[in-house]
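Quarterly update from the structural biology core.
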Amino acid sequence: MKKKLLCTLLTLCMLVGTLADNYHFNFVKADEIQNSTNVKTGDTIKYDGDSFQVIYEITSLWNGAYNVSVTLKNTGTSTIHNWALLYDMETNNITNIWNATIANNENGLYLINNNNWNMDIAVNSSVQFGYTASYTDNLVSLPKTFKLTTCETEVPKNNYETSFAITSTGGGQLTANITIKNISSKTITDWSLKFTYKNKIYNMWGASLEEQEQKDNEYIYQVRNPGWTQNLDANSEYTFGFQAKSVDEAAIPYNFEMKCYDNSIIYDTDTDGDGLDDATELIYGTDINNPDTDGDSLNDGLEVYILGYDPTNIDTDGNGISDAYEDTDEDGLTNIYEVSAGLNPGENDTDSDGLNDGEEINTYKTNPLLDDTDGDTLLDGSEIALKFNPCKKDTNNNGITDDKEFVQQKISENINENANDGAITNVTLKMNVTGDATENTEIENVFGEDILSSNVEGLIGVPININCTGKLDKATITFNYNPEKLGNTSEDDLAILWYDEKNDNYVIYDKEAVLDKTTHTISYTTNHFSTYMVVNKKTWYAVWRNEINYRTTNRKKKFVDVVLTIDASGSMKGSEIVNAKKALNEFTDAKRNKDRLSVVKFTGEADIIGKFKKSKTKIKKDINKIKAGGKTDVDKGLKKAIKLYTEKEYKNVGNKKDILLICDGDLEYNQEIVNLAKKNKISIYTILIGKKNKSALKKISTKTGGAFKNVEKTSDLSNIMFKMEDNIMGAIDKTDSDKDGIFDVYEEKGMFCSNGKIIKTNKNKKDSDGDGLSDYYEFTCIKYIGTPLMPGNKTIYNKRTKEYIDASYFPFVRSNPTKKDSDNDEYNDKIDKKPLHKATKLIGIKNDREFVPINISLGETLWNENWNNFDLSYGGDQGWWSGKINNEGWGIIAAANILFYQSRKGKKISAPFSKTTYKKTVDELSNNIPLLNGAVALTIKRGLKAYWRIRKTEKLYNIDIDVMLFSSEKKSNQLFKKIKTNLKKKNPVILSVGGNIRGNKTKHGPEMFKLEKNSLIKFEGSRQYFDEHYVTITGILTNEQDNTYRLQVSSWGEKYYIKYHDIYPFVKNHSLPMMCDAIFVAKNKSS
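Predicted structure, tokenized:
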């Protein structure tokens, strides 16, 4: 039978069901035991109902099959019309039948129909039929309950037509015929007809006149078929005749009402409105006309589907307490109290706000049906945890609602020891933030997903992404590390790295990070969240010191020392000096790590502003100190610049010696300066602003091996400085063989990325990786239209050593031009929404061997640790059993999976489980979990607890249960969040969804798919569906590309995937909401 729940299930408990008068169902319970292994030929069982009796006899029995004779006797006071008999055969199947037909078979629940010629049973008469049935495991299923069904219903008027004809008149009487025509496509069975006529009928043929009633000079007649023509086939007609006393020959019969006896039970009919359809009530032996069969004030559907109680027993567990006064969900409230208050007695936190129903009512006085009692957007449970008043928006009356108050909080996330090198074991956040951090903040291990961060040079452990929807004041991020997993990295070399995603730049926090070698932690305090990680700072610094030199020159000395010598006289005031300094800063940006620059300014005198330095930051500080004003003496400036090379303090590192002079004239050619420069192998490069003394400057440059440039005004300096950079430091070859906007020299020598990695592209192919995107587009996310790709600059400052490291790198804006699929998520970069962030992620149990691998090979030798020798099942398979476990044991299998998984969670797996051991455990567990039309969450919970008690292991486990009516998408999302939280801790979850409702367009629940081998995005249909079923959830597979969340589940011993967000629409699109329940089991930390 299909498992479902009426939306009014909880509120109907206190109501009396409305009876449907046109249904006449009788039932009787059998005292005999079902599934008997002692049945023998000749065994006869008698079932007595209110108006019928069944004699059920085993006439013959042989291996695997048996014959049955069934006698149905009418012991009532009126004819049984169009009989049909409903009863449960459990796992046995009828293979042949005589003197009756099989009208329907639903999971062993058979509806046996008459054979037309024997459809009616007169008082004290009987009919007999027989059949052959098969059985397995030596279990012959004796019917537990018989239900005799007959339903007299009105035939829709558009299904038939009537006509009237007078055949003769005279002597004050008339003879007439009435013809009935079936114009529908379905047989009208065991018909009767009611009509009104002015003349009094005293004789009838071809039909039986059952009743007549005179009313207002007219007669109301009830006519029934004659017995030999009880059924009116589709598109056929039938005529009967009568004689009547003629009062009015012009009178015509009218108000025709046709009825028939329909013996096909409607499985989704719930006569008493208790949440159990009438067919299901047969299985449980409950009264279809009484919503509370056992009179305990709990309706039958609630007891079966939510509470897991026996609806025919007022005290299911026999502890002397009525089921109504038990506290099934252990929230401090009795079942009957919860029902009367509109709460769910099967779930201790009805509104999913983090407080159980008893706490809300008895302690905090909050509304247990509303997750945010005071409407401040904080859950009631969150307010208690944060020490707010959940019944008051502004607890401390300071004018700030509780949801906007900053509260010091702490959350942490354990890191899987197998993640990367296993060096990082935990990440903890201590933060001052608004809202509930446990609800609005997530710490996520993004190793293997964030491709740039996962490949950072010097990475220790895993990168962590922190998302927070609350408002952050400040937070301390603490990484716990395992010193034994650091490899060659010293604890003193640890630092924290932050990824500035906006600028594609990694920022190191060395001195700012706090290292504690006693607790093996490193921390950093921040006011913003993003991606953070721990790195080996020595490795990180070393990477950026090793720059790639793209400049080429014929000189032996590739790197240079340059004295930037600038005219700061009064003629350079205002915008002139500003433009000059800007040009010098640009020249500084172009320098390489091994180039050194110093700064000299001159007016009437010359001053050294800064001596030789490598740091661009320090050099720019020197340049920006220059102020204009005074006279001009170029000679003094050049002499001061030369002196920097000749003084003892100058450290010759083998660089070429140069001077770059910028001035606006006012000089004569000075041979002494030229000789001095040549003597010390110094080249002088000059830039003249204007035309004054042009020849003198040009001659100085030419004589010393330098170069001369001339600009009209200082605003042109930036444009000419690029050429001077090439003259002094060497030019960058601008050859672009494939015309892709990236110079060949970059493609050949390689390009630094922000994470310290170097990539090389093909200089002869615009699209190096063949993914349909040009290399230029993958770097820039724009089409190449003439502006070549140029590296960006960044400065890394080591606060401990006060070292500045200047570096250039090529930011990735979109994707890696050397890989078709940059993030290895099976989506080509061209179509990938986030090509540097893996679209797919599996949360939970990723390795099949970590779950419940069961050896289903012919041999079960377990000492061999070569797993390849085994044929393994992914969890249990109820198909290994026959009987009830096969048909209804989904919940027991899911519970057993949890038992086996938790028994060795975290332990080294040496071999798979034995199928024999697994089956033995399931059999033992089934003794504690009653199966009648399947298990429900609370019976599974009680069964697990009983199993643990027997083994004295109950204290090792925590068990929680959520029985949720899918009444809203919000409920569905709450459940998903809880499932995800448990799976992140590698705790599988048991989940069930009710069955499909017949007659609706949706025939099945969400399909259960299988993944293609070595893929996380390609699925194969299985024709298995998630409805009326329990599964064990082992993971959640997210896919940001198609925005889906799929549950990874164990079912029938195999791994399937179910779209989670297909479950709620499946439920919503049915006329009756269905039950979904989840069971959460975890080991106690102490165990």
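The first strand starts at residue 26 and ends at 29.
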